[in-house]
Amino acid sequence: MAEERLERAERHLYLVVHPNHSLVASQLDAERFIKHYVRESARYFEGRLVFAELDPAFRHPFFDIESAYAQLKPHEDGSPKATKFVSSYRVLEHVDFAALGTLYVCDESGGFVALERSVLEAYGDGAEPADGEEMRVILEVDPVRFVVLTRLSLAEYGRFATDPSNSKGAPRMLYTELDLSVDDFIRETEESPYVTSFFPGIQSERLRFAIKELRRSPGKEVKGIALHCPFDRVSYKRLRGGFVFASREGIKRYPLLGLDEVERRFYKFWKNM
Fold first, then answer.
1. Rounded to the nearest 5°, which phi and psi values hold at 246?
2. Coil, helix or strand for 3?
3. pLDDT tens digit string along 171-214?
4. Are residues 127 and 106 in the same domain?
5. Into how many domains does the chain fold?
6. Mean pLDDT, the chain, as a whole number?
7. Looking at residue 218, what is its pLDDT?
8. Is residue 270 domain-resident?
């Protein structure tokens, strides 16, 4: 019985959403998993790692989790089994949001910030926090990676992105928001039209054109501005609104921590932001 409890205590399940899309079983706790993934793995890796803990008891017919757990055995030298990939295909689509735990945003040095989940919100439940912004820039992280300009709130974008009729969407999505004031951006770029792009992968002229197009088209709610989101190159300091997991049923938010709290609790990550 004691041996069975030990084996279960060594079982962890991680949903990796960046840089790849995978469900991974591991004998490592989250902090040790980060260190292995970004610094010790024989597979070449650079950039940001984003993953969420899942309840180890989570099961779905799409995944053969039991077989992966059966292979979570220490190596001959006694070191723990770091990764056993369960699946790398259509992973987020088959994850129950109720099983989502802490979300980790990690840099390539092994520094990280840990974000805690809120309750699952049905669309229309509660009031969307007012930020006074006419439009926002959405950064899609998983499973598609478009960058879009939208009139929709951060929550309502989830309904749009997961609509089966949306040819650019998906059944489940993870996205975040760029910290941008549309009015300030228009004013600054008109004063200095040759200013360097404020965001990697987005031309200032392209974004200015998209803003003006939405303003001319009251019935249009979304405008694409980039076919790929260079998420690795976006500082945590340039985000707002947190990370959002969306499905047809509702959303689950992971609010961002303030920079003062990041500095106090996750100094290594803060130092490299």
1. -125, 145
2. helix
3. 999 999 999 888 888 888 888 766 666 788 788 888 889 999 99
4. no
5. 2
6. 89
7. 87
8. no
Six token digits for residue 270: 């803060």
- Residue 47 is part of which domain span? 2-115
pLDDT for 5: 41
119 or 2: whose pLDDT is higher?
119
Same domain, yes or no: 126 and 99: no
- If asked whether residues 100 and 135 sit together in one domain, one would say no
Place of tokens 């290594």: 268
User: C-alpha angle with apex 261: 258 to 263, nearest 5 degrees?
Assistant: 110
Cα distance between residue 46 and residue 19, in whole Å: 9
Strand partners, 239: 178
Percent of the chain with pLDDT over 70: 90
Mean pLDDT, range 133-141, rounded to an integer:
93
Whole-angstrom distance, CA of residue 19 vs CA of residue 168: 20
Q: Which of 115, 144, 173 corresponds to the end of one domain?
A: 115
Residue 65 neighbours by CB under 8 Å, 6+ apart: 13, 23, 25, 58, 59, 86
In the block, tokens 């938010």 appear at 253
Question: 124 and 106 share a domain?
Answer: no
Report pLDDT digits (tens) over 207-264.
Answer: 889 999 999 998 899 999 989 898 988 999 999 999 999 999 999 999 999 999 999 9
Average pLDDT (45-70) is 94
d(CA 30, CA 49): 12
Residues 178 and 236 in one domain: yes
**Judgement on whether residues 124 and 225 belong to the same structural domain of the protein:** yes
| Same-domain status, 124 and 100 | no
Distance from C-alpha of 206 to C-alpha of 197, rounded to nearest angstrom = 10
Last residue of a domain, one of 67, 90, 115: 115
Residues 257 and 64: their CA atoms lie apart, in Å, by 35
